[in-house]
Structure formats: C-alpha cells, structure tokens
Amino acid sequence: MSNDKRLSFEFFPPKTEAGAAKLAATWKQLGQIQPGFFSVTYGAGGSTRDNTRDTVLAIRQDGYAVAPHLSFGGDGEDSILALLEEYRRAGIKRIVALRGDMPSGMGMARLAYANELVTFIRKHTGDHFHIEVAAYPEIHPEAGSYDEDVMYLKQKFDAGANSAITQYFYDVDAYRWFLGKCQAAGIDAPIYPGIMPITNYQNLARFSAKSGASIPRWMARQLECYGDDQQSVIDFGIEVVSRLCQQLLQAGAPGLHFYTMNQAEPTTTICRNIGLGQGN
Ligand code: FAD
After folding, report:
1. Which of 59, 77, 242, 244 makes the best surface tag, with the fewest CB within 10 Å?
2. What domains can you pick out in the chain, each with its CATH number?
3. pLDDT digit string (tens) for 181-190?
4. Nearest atom, ligand 1, residue 167 CA
5. Lowest model confidence (mean pLDDT) among 28-42, 65-79, 151-165, 254-268
6. Ligand 1 atom 53: residue of nearest CA
7. CB within 6 Å of ligand 1 — which residues?
C-alpha cells in the first residue's frame, strides 16, 4: 500500500496523571508510524477544555503535529478566540471543528453548528489553520434526511473547511455511496474514513447505539460468541478492521483516521497489516 496515504490518530484527554503518563507512552509508540498528525477530542461545553489544551500542548512540545478538536458548546466567542490564539502561538496548524454533543447534566444550551465555528475560525485567523470537519457515511443520527446531511457537510466546506474525517463504520459500500453523493453535491475535498479498532464488544455496541454507527449483524453475532474471551475479540477485530482498511484504500480513500482509544494496540498491528507506516 502506498505511503502517500495520510494517517492520523485520535486520543481523548486523560483525566489522571497515570492516564497522562500512559498516553505519552502511546503517542511515542504511535509516533514511530509517522502519522500526519495526532488529534485530541474536546468535550462540548468546555468540560475537557483544560485537559484537551494541556494534552495538545504536551504532544506539540514533544515535536509532533497535533490537531485539537474544538466546538463552541455554550462558550462565548472570547474564550474560543483565546484558545485559538494559544494554539496558534504554540505552532498548531490544524483544528477539527465540530458542533459537539453536550455532555449529560450540562444544560440545554443551543449548540452552534460546526459551519458556524468554521466561519468564525476563518474570520479571525484567516488561512492559518487547516480545518477538518466531521462527516457521516451512515448519516448523522439527528439529520432530517441523507441528502440534507450531505448538504450541511457542503455548507461546512463552503464556510472554509479543508477536509473531513468520518464517523466510524464497518461497511465499505456506505463510504463508496457517501463519496458519490458528496461528489454529486459538489464536494471535492478529501474525506478520510474514521476507523474504530475493536477491543471490547460491549463498549463498541453502547457507543455505536449512541452515535448512529452500525455494526453489521454478522460481526455482532460473531463478537457475541466470544463472550469474555478478550483475545478472540481482539484477533477478530484486527482481521476484520485490517481488511476494511485495505478495501477503503482500494476504494480511493485518501488515508485513514484511527480512533485509538488511547491505546497503541491494535492500531499499530492494523497499520502494519495494511503496509502503512513503520518504514513500509
Ligand atoms: P454539525 O455538522 O453541526 O451537524 C449536526 C447535525 O445538525 C447534523 O444532523 C446536521 O445534518 C445538522 N445540521 C448541520 N448544520 C445545520 C444547520 N446549519 N442547520 C440545521 N441543521 C444543521 N464530539 C465531541 O463532543 N467532541 C469531539 O472531540 C468529537 N470529535 C469528533 C471527531 C470526528 C471525526 C467525528 C466524526 C465526530 C466527533 N464528535 C465529537 C462527535 C460530534 O460532535 C457529534 O456527532 C455531533 O452530534 C455533531 O457534530 P458535527 O460537527 O458533525 O455537527
């Protein structure tokens, strides 16, 4: 597989010192694969603001390219502007701009749509940041319709986004169909598939139900059979996800974005299986 494909690895900000130390070991290990960048999630409503910023700056200080995720949440423009300025001063050149989801218990403030944040970033920082936005090959759970969701993705590009990263999915045809619809809607920017390695079926099922990502029935039934046999879950996940990645790249995906869950494995093994990174 060719090395011109972009790889990126996503982390969430750790809550404890032990978690931070473990994450530092993880990014050093994944750094050997030479990804285009790491990214760090952000809790809308500012719930992880400091943790996200601290993690982003630590990765940057270690010499890696890193993209903070960002959303308005219920925050005012001033605090978002201050964060953007801090990132710019730290030499950060990429932002993942999102509407986000309000964490439970944090009120019902209207969340600004991602296109509003993209417009805001462009207005205040010009072309400094490469802006990534989210895309949904299986369509965002709140979307009125498939075509409407694609139209709102187009709106994010029209506002100044450069590329998109998708929610995870396990059906290559969902991605192929989505790319076709995006092209028909006039979107010609790269759309990077989001890849979720499988390590724990219960967690995956819970998260998928919330985020609208489907697990094909044959996969769910096979994973159920493994029960508490964690090693079989992991082995199955590596095989299925490696195959998915290969098929996506063959289908024309410009690269892959891994939801690492702050673990170097199984992402490292999957990248090796598909011939990306580590000197391949
Ligand atoms: P938007 O693009 O604003 O879309 C949200 C919904 O509103 C969609 O249904 C869309 O069709 C509709 N819509 C969009 N614009 C308009 C408009 N102008 N008028 C009316 N309807 C509109 N969540 C976090 O909390 N933190 C993270 O760090 C995070 N990182 C993510 C990274 C990736 C790569 C992805 C794919 C998702 C991530 N998420 C994260 C989840 C994301 O925040 C949720 O899916 C959220 O519900 C939608 O965010 P968005 O940016 O896609 O929203």
Report:
1. 77
2. 6-273 (3.20.20.220)
3. 999 999 999 9
4. 36
5. 65-79
6. 99
7. 41-44, 69, 96, 98-101, 113-115, 134, 140, 142-143, 148-149, 152, 156, 165-167, 194
Determine the Cα–Cα distance for residues 247 and 274; give it in Å rounded to an integer: 10
Residue corresponding to tokens 């439970």 = 104
Active site residues: 10
What spacing in Å lies between the alpha carbon of 258 and ligand 1's midpoint? 18
